[in-house]
Amino acid sequence: MSRKLKWGILGTAEIARSAIIPAIQESEYGDVVAIASRRAEHAAEVAEQMQIPRSYGSYEELLQDEEVEAVYIPLPNHLHKEWTIKAAQAGKHVLCEKPSSLNAMDTTEMVEACNQAGVVFAEGFMYRYHPKHQRIKEIINSGEIGDIRGIHCTFTFNQADQQGNVRFNREMGGGSIYDVGVYPISAARMYLDREPEAVMVHALYSPEHGDVDMMASGLLEFPGDVTLTFDCGMWAASRSNMEILGTKGTIAMPKMFGWEKSTMVPQIFVHTGTVTREERLKGRNSFLLQVEAFSTAVLEGKPLPYDPSDAILNMKVIDACQQSARERRRVELS
């Protein structure tokens, strides 16, 4: 590759500072040239700490920076739509943190704005870029575990004592379904390569935490009588695992969605009959892999492994899950 993609960061969220910015700086294909915050002094402080050349006291100023070619958006969920569209209109490519927005209609508008502007758009599901998922699909397609009967996935953590956490603000897109429930849902769609037909979700809403869903458990019905059962939460012990159940065996992933910032080796366990096989793939930082895929899509025109339409489809399922949880009923997807 002849040059690096010039990045601007819209916001100073923890995930930007601990994961995405280091990944871009480590990448051979990217360079962080600017960062913005609503407080100029905070942006300047982060820029100095992370050796970023320029800082801005507003997101608008960063979008006016002609050197910036792409932006990463780690802002609160309710701001994703506004700043994705503004970035696209400014001619910037967009990597937007998950969930893409608060509903499928908003995500559709975001994707259309990026298409009209001729810029690349991607939703920031970093885990999907790790090669272990391609390996799991190979195992499934080989028939080793037989026909898929169901998938079970968990993603929970406990931050209930963090007062003022943006995840506890309903108007800003808080709640466990938006924050971590999106992961098992996107993973099941990825592995099964099909869309669910109906969902049923039960949630724990907490008045102490802005009436957001602090815990949710759900069932997604896929064609062929295959189901995903999942639970997600922000008020429970930490878990992040998945099991795929087949007629002949199972595939288990005990660290399904970990922040693979280091070269920690992910593990896959395949159990058939009385035999269990452990597979270890050479670990790479999933954030780095995501950044590299996005950069090559912009600089070389290589298609992203996940089309922007995937973000719309995933949000349609999330919309149904939110509706099911609030109305306490099964919701069919058209």
From TrEMBL:
Residues 133-251 form the GFO/IDH/MocA-like oxidoreductase domain. Keywords: Oxidoreductase. The keyword Cell membrane does not apply. InterPro entries: Gfo/Idh/MocA-like_OxRdtase_N, Gfo/Idh/MocA_domain, GFO_IDH_MocA-like_dom, NAD(P)-bd_dom_sf. The keyword Oxidoreductase applies. Residues 5-125 form the Gfo/Idh/MocA-like oxidoreductase N-terminal domain. It comes from the Bacteria. SUPFAM superfamilies: Glyceraldehyde-3-phosphate dehydrogenase-like, C-terminal domain, NAD(P)-binding Rossmann-fold domains. This is Gfo/Idh/MocA family oxidoreductase. It comes from Paenibacillus lacisoli.
